[in-house]
Amino acid sequence: MQPDDPTLERSFRGHKDAVTSVCFNNNMKQLISGSLDGCVMIWNFKPQLRAYRFAGHKVWALPTQRFAFTLSGHQNWVRSCAASPDCRLAVSGGDDRCVKVWDLGSKKCIRSYDDHTGCVNTVAFHPDGTCVASAGTDNTIKLWDIRTNQLLQHYKAHTGAVTHLTFHPSGNFLLTTSLDATLKAGVGAASRW
């Protein structure tokens, strides 16, 4: 082992089935995970603070740790969801091959994109909140402008299903992971993969 090699800091145990997603809370004090056990868990980095378990996949009010409401509209499993930077909208994608944008105030679907030919594994909002990205089993990445409802970009960047995508906080980079054993980065809005 080299001195600069990463080491395991801590393991989190509590899910009862495969963990399918994970992300950092913006406060960098917590980690959030989702699992096939039907639960979302919030893990605190300080070992003395307990983890929170949210059973079922609903919109949750974190300060009260209570169920808030359900967004219904997909015709099959929902694989991914994300809130907009201002928390007024949400985007979701799933096995019905649709990407849906939701107004969290009215609790209604305000946009639906069905351009994918396979399941949508992952969705994300651009940091400026004006577009969403999605990717999935059709090996493609798509970006939509939610103000104009237009498909901005379409990439066939991978030779296997895309498993996750995320924007850099600056909005200048988009990272994707795939079952083709690669991680790819796109640079700028007009980048080519």
From TrEMBL:
Keyword Cell inner membrane listed: no
Segments crossing the lipid bilayer: none
InterPro entries: WD40/YVTN_repeat-like_dom_sf, WD40_PAC1, WD40_repeat_CS, WD40_repeat_dom_sf, WD40_rpt, WDR55/POC1
Domain of life, per lineage: Eukaryota
Pfam families for this protein: WD40
Residue spans of the WD repeats: 12-46, 71-112, 113-154, 155-184
UniProtKB keywords: Repeat, WD repeat
The keyword Repeat is assigned to this record: yes
Protein name: WD_REPEATS_REGION domain-containing protein
Species this chain originates from: Haematococcus lacustris
Species classification: Eukaryota, Viridiplantae, Chlorophyta, core chlorophytes, Chlorophyceae
